[in-house]
Specification:
mainly alpha; two-stranded antiparallel ribbon; 3 helices; 2 strands; about 5% strand
Length: about 90
């Protein structure tokens, strides 16, 4: 959140709603790597990643797909670059 304030790249703490976990169930594989519907895409992505992270490890899912492109100017926004740079520079 501090890196967001100093970079201008806005973020928010997204809830990880376990109900969306059913989207990752697969009849063939251990799990799907994407949801089966158009609902909760970022949440299902976070739930997928969470399966591979140890319980005591702090982590973040930065979903950059939407804000990384500006349709009006047809150019990349650079969203997330300053955010990640500020976060890394301010690690203690």
């Amino acid at each position: 959140m501090e890196a967001s304030a100093s970079s201008g790249d806005r973020i928010w703490r997204m809830p990880i709603i376990s109900d969306y976990g059913k989207e990752l169930k697969s009849p063939i594989a251990d799990m799907r790597n994407t949801g089966i519907s158009r609902s909760g895409g970022s949440i299902t992505a976070a739930l997928f990643l969470q399966k591979f992270i140890k319980k005591d490890v702090a982590w973040a899912h930065l979903d950059m797909a939407g804000p990384v492109w500006d349709n009006e100017s047809q150019s990349a926004t650079g969203y997330g670059t300053s955010l990640l740079t500020n976060y890394l520079l301010n690690l203690k």
